[in-house]
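Deliverable D4.2, example record:
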Amino acid sequence: MISVTDESVTRDIIKSVVPGVLTLLGGYGADTSRILRENDAVCARVTTFQAQPDKLTKALKIITTRIAPAVREQSGFEGISILSDSVTANGMVITYWSTQENLDALDARGFWEAQVAHGIYLIAAVPRRQTYDVAMRE
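Output generated by the structure prediction step:
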């Protein structure tokens, strides 16, 4: 049995082996996904909202033209997904960040609240947010 303690060597070995190595290592556990995806986001902020009836399109326009560009300029930004359901007028914005510290810095400045204020008049209820660890992202 080979024992490798240097994480960079381990990562190189894993990357050079067939994709089935994840099965051999016990699935998509947090340790193996961190090794395989060193440059991926480590946390995600999920904001859910419900637009007022017939206001979802306008809310999405504000998100895509005002909020998303502001988010992209922030330190540690790794990506964004915007999801919507036109039947229920529900929406979800998922942003990906390189470190929790980047997200904490935004929170300390009131960045989230400032962005929500752009479209609060289109929302039926106060948007909710939650932060998650990213277990896998392709």
